[in-house]
Amino acid sequence: MGFISDALGRMKPSATIALTQMARERKAAGKDVISLALGEPDFNTPDHIKEAAIAAINRNDTRYPPVAGIVPLREAIARKFKRENNLDYKPAQTIVGTGGKHILYNAFLSTLNPGDEVVVIAPFWVSYPEMAMVCGGTPVIVEAHEKDNFKLKPEALERAITPKTKWVLLNSPSNPTGAAYSRAEMKALTDVLLRHPHVWLMTDDIYEHLVYGDYKFVTPVEVEPSLYDRTLTVNGVSKAYAMTGWRIGYAAGPEKLIKAMDSAMSQQTSGACTIAQWAATAALDGPQDHLPVFRATFEERRNLVVSMLNQATGLKCATPEGAFYVYPSMSALIGKTAPSGKKIETDEDFVLELLNAEDVAGVHGSAFGVGPAMRVSYATSTELLQEACERIQRFCNSLK
Ligand SMILES: Cc1ncc(COP(=O)(O)O)c(C=O)c1O
Which spans in 216-375 are helix H? Predict the structure, then answer.
């Protein structure tokens, strides 16, 4: 009998974290590494948010929180959904967790029974299928194709749904492709869900505020209010407020689901860090004027990276609407030989050889369910991005 549980034994370690770790080790060994592997804004948390946390500490607001979240934060979350998404939720329909990841995990833990299927759209965030599986569910992967800008066609969603489907998971803007659904595209997907009343929708809106050009963010229940009673809308402060280390995520949905997640959390974390919750309250209720600055900076970087990657021999890179990732494909490079003599047979070979030859870390597309491709995070300085893209161009040119 093995010591590690079967469920955990089946879980794949995160490829993004593995690549980031390899980049860190090379850096520690003195190499000039540029990592485009991890998804975290390089901005600082805005000052008024930090001050709210310091004030909480100074007034000794440092005890256990109510499990589902402090009342002011749950009220701020309800206000946020009304103000930004035109969704009506009572604070009792909201829940706070230790990051969006914890919220998603908890939603699965609270609802999945063996055999329940979770429809996950590929390319997917690496954690979705693993979380569903560890909680006893069966991930059903459905591919969104490059020719459709990595957005799922409604016919494909229709085909993926079975009587066993419990959840459909949407993530727009997407990690890893940056693709985001327009109102019409979202409506086409929600129309499919209307035909399957047994299916619940989990929507991960964590990149809501990082959208560019003319694109306008939409969340499914705003587009199709009749899905309100079977949708969990998940969000968090990590990306929009540069608060990845504070670990606060949140969600809103039907009270029976929120209560189940509250009960699960009461036996897990006993609630998210009180101090970080005060910071998140200030984030949601406070000034939002850092957002246009974040957006303008990311948009400029996106444009630079897309243009430079399209100039690299053999890479093809679409211009996505949001998040801070691009997802160039590389079919033309498979079968070529790297300067080290290694044949590039997969996109994983490509990212490993790129790291060896040019000290640039990206993450192979096959880790996100669709390859050959590479996820490039542009949440790093413009100077470093320029240098990294020049190295990628040089590497692609060196393949024979
Ligand atoms: C698509 C997506 N959802 C959720 C998260 C979770 O973020 P956090 O746990 O920091 O709120 C991430 C983080 O990378 C993400 O990319």
Answer: 220-223, 255-266, 274-285, 290-310, 347-358
pLDDT at residue 219 in the model: 98
For the Cβ of 204 lying below 6 angstroms from any atom of ligand 1, the answer is yes
Single out the residue of 321, 355, 322 nearest to residue 338, CA to CA: 355
Phi, psi of 375 (to 5 degrees): -90, 125
Residue labelled with tokens 């590389």: 330
The pLDDT value recorded for residue 15 is 76
Q: Checking DSSP bridges between strand 325-326 and strand 374-377, what pairing results, if any? A: antiparallel
The two beta strands, 117-122 and 34-35, are unpaired
- Distance, CA of 237 to CA of 194 (rounded, Å): 30
Whole-angstrom CA distances from 241 to 40, 87, 212 are 11, 21, 17
Residue to substitute in 14, 20, 130, 206 for testing ligand 1 pocket (most ligand atoms within 8 angstroms of CB)? 206
Q: Which residue has the tokens 């939002």?
A: 288
| 98 alpha carbon – ligand 1 mean position (Å) | 11
pTM here?
Answer: 0.96
Comparing CA positions, the residue from 212, 400, 196 lying closest to residue 305 is 212
Residues 64-112 have pLDDT tens digits of 999 999 999 999 999 999 999 999 999 999 999 999 999 999 999 999 9
Ligand 1 nearest atom to the CA of residue 100, by list position: 11
* Ligand 1 near 99 CB (within 6 A): yes
Ligand 1 contact via 372 beta carbon (within 6 Å): no
Query: Residue 273, SS3?
Result: coil
Render pLDDT for 53-62 as a digit per residue (tens, 0 to 9).
Answer: 999 999 999 9
Burial 151-185 (b: 16+ CB within 10 A, else e): bbbeebbeebbeeebbbbbbbbbbbbbbbbbbeeb
DSSP string of 106-118, one letter each residue: HHHHHH--TT-EE
In this structure, the strands spanning 200-204 and 165-171 are: parallel
Nearest ligand 1 atom to alpha carbon 237: 11
Place of tokens 């020049």: 390
Name the percent of the chain lying above pLDDT 90: 92
Q: Over pLDDT 70: what percentage of the chain?
A: 100
397 Cα to the center of ligand 1, angstroms? 34
- Please give the backbone phi and psi of residue 138, each rounded to the nearest 5 degrees, phi first: -115, 110
Quote the ligand 1 centre to 101 CA distance (angstroms): 6
